Amino acid sequence: MTWLVTGGAGYIGSHVTHAFRRAGTEVVVIDSLASGHEEFVPNDVPFVRGSVLDRELVLRTLTDHAVTGVVHLAGFKYAGVSVEKPMLTYQQNVTGTVTLLDAMAEAGVTNLVFSSSAATYGTPDVDQVTEATPTAPESPYGESKLIGEWLLRDQAAATELHHTSLRYFNVVGSGSSELYDTSPHNLFPIVLRALAAGRTPQINGDDYPTPDGTCVRDYVHVADLARSHAAAARALEAGRELEPVYNLGSGDGVSVREIMDAVRTVTGIDFTPVIAPRRAGDPARIVASGELAARDLDWAMRHSLADMVASAWDAQQRHPAAS
């Protein structure tokens, strides 16, 4: 079997690609390199540069490589920026998914693992969300991911598509010092770049209705996340029925201030973060249960918060110019 990983040269996608290869599964990657890096793709993995909006390129990739399943990670993922650029977000995330599903149907590819988001929940009025928690996204990004789930549901009703969607929020750390987060918007790279440059990191808002006033999230290690993507793909390939949606959650979550404390401890750099205004589209708290994923997708929090910070800091130190 061969699986296509869309966005497979990105931070999460490259970890998923490496997880497939470690499991002995053949992989092909398609990525526009808008935010990905070709050097993140293993040398023995075919790489196709292009966008999932290019239907003919996607169809050709599926057929030329005899693809049997797809992990769909390509898209625009920044909730705050999506408020400013809603049309770009919908084009990349909704139109891109429609185009992929259309090409898959023509090529006869019937297995799909979709990278969704805990942003689909908005700010739920519960301590811990489950897959049954009502969705109420608060940003175009969250809305686009929920629409993506609907597209899979409707396509499955009309065709032989077998699918599952994985919802998660903040993905951090590095599974290898050669694979790292280069996002200009994600908390870990922003904080670590600031420290490496001698600047003081900042917290966006300390007046949220949380114990310490800062946002509370599930922070999950990227290698743990990649492992469950690969497990989901194997389950679909084996013909197992999966839930339509799984949360890859920690069950408890940590705050941004707690992240700053962990960074201070791990790096040995003393600092007091600057308090900046809130970012648009940031809910106060999202913490999800991972019980269903633990049951079906080999999901577990195998890395502590200190592990997450240490692996990210090591990668940043090794690649200061690129990160």
Can you identify the CATH class of the largest domain?
A: Alpha Beta
CATH topology description of the largest domain = Rossmann fold
Percent of residues in beta strands?
15-25%
**Total of DSSP H or I helical runs spanning 4+ residues:** 10
Q: Detail the poorly predicted runs.
A: none
EC number: 5.1.3.2
Family: Belongs to the NAD(P)-dependent epimerase/dehydratase family.
InterPro entries: Epimerase_deHydtase, NAD(P)-bd_dom_sf, UDP_G4E
Protein name: UDP-glucose 4-epimerase
What can you tell me about this protein's structure?
The chain is α/β, with parallel strands linked by helices. It has 2 domains: 199 residues, NAD(P)-binding Rossmann-like Domain (Rossmann fold, 3-Layer(aba) Sandwich), CATH 3.40.50; 100 residues, UDP-galactose 4-epimerase, domain 1. Helix content is 39%, strand content 15%. It is built from 10 helices and 14 strands. Strands 3-2-1-4-5-6-11 form a 7-stranded parallel sheet, sandwiched between helices. Strands 12-9-14 form a 3-stranded mixed sheet. 49% of the residues are buried. The mean pLDDT is 95. It is an enzyme of class 5 (isomerase). Its cofactor is NAD(+). One of its GO terms (molecular function) is UDP-glucose 4-epimerase activity.
Task: Give the tags.
323 residues; alpha/beta; Rossmann fold; UDP-galactose 4-epimerase, domain 1; 2 domains; 7-stranded parallel sheet; 3-stranded mixed sheet; 14 strands; globular; isomerase; carbohydrate metabolism; Epimerase_deHydtase
Which secondary structure elements does this structure contain, and how are they paired or packed?
Elements: E1 2-6, H1 11-22, E2 26-31, E3 47-49, H2 55-64, E4 69-72, H3 79-84, H4 86-107, E5 111-115, H5 140-158, E6 162-167, E7 170-172, H6 187-196, E8 202-204, E9 216-217, E10 219-221, H7 222-237, E11 245-247, E12 254-255, H8 256-267, E13 274-276, E14 285-286, H9 291-296, H10 305-318
Parallel strand pairs: 1-2, 1-4, 2-3, 4-5, 5-6, 6-11, 7-10, 8-13, 9-14
Antiparallel strand pairs: 9-12
Helix pairs in contact: 1-7, 2-4, 4-5, 6-10, 8-10
